[in-house]
Amino acid sequence: MNEVPLDRPADVAALRCRAAEMPPHPAPPTREERMRRDPLPFIPEARRAAARAPAREPEAGAFELSADDPAWRGQGWWPLERTQSGPLRWTGPASCAAVLLPALGGGALRVTLNVRAPFGIPLDIARYELELDGAPLSFGTLANDGVTGRFSALVTIAPMPPLTRVALLIAGAWHEDPDTGPRRELRKLGLGLMRVRLERA
């Protein structure tokens, strides 16, 4: 078909009017609108892969952490020390001390501690307040030679998803070195934690 040239002013004006009457082209959708229509392209591949993977199971078996373990994560402790009883960390520089442990899925758990009292003071675990994820711990004695001891407690906490961490918290008595000589320890020390074990009860 031959095109008719729009040489006449009336024809050009009519075309402009028809163009003005046509609805304008819609604006491109915003990112938010595109995400509502199809969010998949906007989800990072790592998250999509994790969603496709089977659900994680809570950590299996018991977990043990010594005071010199590189995995140690805590606060409120004096620096790591090496003693005749083994490596330990004293409570004392803060009102309480805490160390992070895997929750093992939560529920019924058993906590076992190897600890030491400072300055030769008789070891009495009842002098200290201990909690796991806010739940008070009442320890029974497995071994106690008066200075070092091993104690165990049962506790039930809320169910936890895999890879969750909970805090073991220790607060209580601090002691001063009774020695008056030049080698007197100037720090106030609480309970020395050598090792903690957490397992399902």
Describe the structure in your own words.
The chain has 201 residues and is α+β, with helices and mostly antiparallel strands. The chain has two domains: 9-40 and 42-52, no CATH class; 63-200, Galactose-binding domain-like (Jelly Rolls), CATH 2.60.120. The protein is 14% helix and 35% strand. It has three helices and twelve strands. The strands form two sheets. Strands 1, 3, 4, 6, 9, 10 and 12 form a seven-stranded antiparallel sheet that branches. A five-stranded antiparallel sheet has the order 2-5-11-7-8, with no helix packed on it. It is elongated. The model is unreliable at 1-22 (pLDDT under 50).
Domain tally: 2
Provide the residue-averaged pLDDT. 81
Range of strand content: 25-35%
- Taking pLDDT < 50 over at least 5 consecutive residues as the criterion, the unreliable ranges are 1-22
What is the CATH architecture annotation of the largest domain?
Sandwich
* Number of DSSP E strands: 12
Q: How do you describe this structure in short?
A:
The chain is α+β, with helices and mostly antiparallel strands and 201 residues long.
